[in-house]
Every structure is written in structure tokens, then in C-alpha cells.
Here is the input.
Amino acid sequence: MRSTHLAYCRSELDDGEIAAVEDALRAGWLTSGPQVTAFEAAFAARARIAHAVALNSCTAALHVALAAFDVGPGDEVVMPSLTFAAGAQCAMELGARPVFADVDPQTLSVTRDTIAAVTTRRTKAIVTMPYAGRPLGIAEIAAFARERSIRVLEDAAHGCGMLDDGTWAGTHSDAAAYSFYATKNLTTAEGGMLLTRDAALAERARRLALHGMSKDAWRRYEAGGTWRYDVSEPGFKYNMPDPLAALGVAGLARLDARQTRRAELAARYGERITAIRGLRLPAPPARTADRHAWCMYAVLVDERELRISRDELIDALAARKIGTSVHYIPTHRFTAYRGLERAPLPNTEQLAASVVSLPLYPAMQDRDVDDVLDALEFIALPRVHAVG
Ligand SMILES: Cc1ncc(COP(=O)(O)O)c(C=O)c1O
Here is the structure.
């Protein structure tokens, strides 16, 4: 057994990233400025999507995008319940109703069919979420939405480094909201990015993210700038500060190497987990040009075969010094959303009771993965003796 606790997640920055933040802190400009512009340009270039708007969270990106779609009272926004509650929160803040679509039991993501089952004439937008960064086939969902004049927003919180049939999230949809939260594949400690091909949408989102102002501080105070600005509509305060954008620029240059490491660790898990009776893995990506982002490593517990519940497995792993997490407690189960009218979500309910996330981050050593696997095999073993 391990002598030290293996944390579920841990961020590790290299000296170059720390130096980039330090330089930005010493530059004499701290709020959104040249580093934000550089980060937006670099991110848009990597994604091959024309417009990138840096924000202080993915939640902010979801909020401004839905607001820029003119989502409001009387509208419905279709989304999974097996996700983080940010999407439902944003829809409700705008006066719209979140409508939960069930997820596929193999991919843990919504599909065209589960979305179609809850789409009505009031559906204004669909928010998809590729679970763990496994591409969900967005083109089919985007085509379904386009035929009905419904907007599609990808919650790409897990999607940095993912390729859906060769493309970044935001290519086929109206927009994608990325997260740079501390646990994500690319981090700015806290942060987000809205990516879109739509220039008008980007322009409105950028304005909404800064109180609805026509001009940010950098453009007012730089040489030749003017103090005059207008506020064209009430907005929010969601802009990204420059030192965090500097971390984003430096991190983006390291994204590929870190993705390679995530994929190696995931492959190492997969080799042995598939042999453990009572554990099942979500489906791998479906298309040859798909690339999994491996933002998380989810495993599904078959309680009857493993002879212990998911919660007992989490406790048993904790006793063996392995940290885990659960993604997700479905949104519809939370006090704030329990009252929402909804159709049954059988797959969501079943998955929520059986899913567990194992540690997966580039700073992990092969030995750490082996420790998790040893622990899982040990926990599964008494069942073999009990049956056999
Ligand atoms: C699926 C999903 N959506 C949205 C968010 C919100 O991201 P942020 O913390 O950047 O607002 C998260 C955060 O973990 C997430 O996992």
C-alpha cells in the first residue's frame, strides 16, 4: 500500500509558466490587456476558429453566450443533468428553463436522440457537454439544431485538447465555452474562453463580459486612447486579468506534451482495468479523427459483480490512500433545481450511482497509476474468493 496519499488532482506548473506570470505581474498592467489579446489570438489559432473571447471562467462564457443568443424568459435550454450545474444556473439567471436530456450509458454524454426527446417549440438553445473530453459527435447534433433554428453551445470545460472528428469544440456549433479551472487540461487557475466562428456573437459576448461597455480599459488608457465610452446594454464583469492570460499563453505551448502524458496514463489504466470484473469503462471515441482529451478518467462500477457499491469502493480506495471524485451529482438532484419539471432520466440516475473518477493528471508517475490499479485489484479480489 502507498505510504503517501495520492491526491485526486494536483496542478503542476513549470518554471517557464511561473516566469511568464511574474513578467506579467511586473509589466505595469494587471487587468485585461496585451496578454489577454495574445492568449485569445494563440487559442483561436490553435483551434482554427476565428474568434476567441477570454473570460474569468467557463461559467462566464456559458452565461455571456446564452445571453448573446437572447435566451430569456419563456425559453427552454436543453442540457444534460449529468454535468456541472453551471449551465442550468446560467439558463435560470437569464429567466429561461433548463430542460434535462438523458445521456448515453456508454458515452455519458447527450446524443441527438436524447436531445430530440425533450426538444419543444420553446427550445432556444442546446448545451452539450463531451463528458471527460470524449468527443460526442457534435456535427449531428448541430445539424439537428440548425434545421430547427436552435442555437448550440458546447460546454467544452473538459474539451481542451479534444478533437471531434478532427475539429475543436466551437467548429460545428454556434460557440464553445472552455474552462481553465485549476483541474483542467489547460489552466489559468480560474478562467475560460468563448470560441466562435460568428464575429457578431463574439463582439456581443465581449461587450456583455465587460458591463456592456464599448471599450475596455486597455483601449481607453493606451497611447492615443480616449476616456470616452458607451454602455450599450447591461452586462456582467467577467474579463480575464493579464497575469492569468500570460499563464494561459505559456500553458498552451505545453498543452500537447501534457495531452500526450494524459493519454499514456489513461492507456496504462485501461490495460488492467478491463480485466477487473465489476468495473467497466465508458466507450472510447468513435471516429478515426476523434481525439479524447482525457480531462478525467471515469470508471463505472457494477455493484453486483464487484459485490460492493460505488460509495464503498470510494471508501476502500481512500483507506488505501487513493483520492477519487464523482462526476457528477446530477443537477436535477440539487435543492436549487429539484423543483424543475422534467422527464425521467434513467441512464443519468444509473450512471450517477455507479461512476467514479480516478486520479489523472500529467504530474502523476506511472507508479501512481499502478498503485491505483493494485488497490482496485486488491479490493476486487475478495469477491473472487467469495464466489470461487
Ligand atoms: C462540465 C463543466 N462545465 C462547467 C464548468 C465550470 O467551469 P468554471 O469553473 O471555469 O466556471 C465545469 C467546472 O469544473 C465543468 O466541469
Remarks:
- The domain at 15-252 is CATH 3.40.640.10 (Aspartate Aminotransferase; domain 2).
- The pocket of pyridoxal-5'-phosphate is lined by residues 57-59, 83-84, 86, 129, 155, 157-158, 179, 181, 192 (CB under 6 Å).
- The chain has a mean pLDDT of 96.
- Residues 5 and 321 are 5 Å apart (CA to CA).
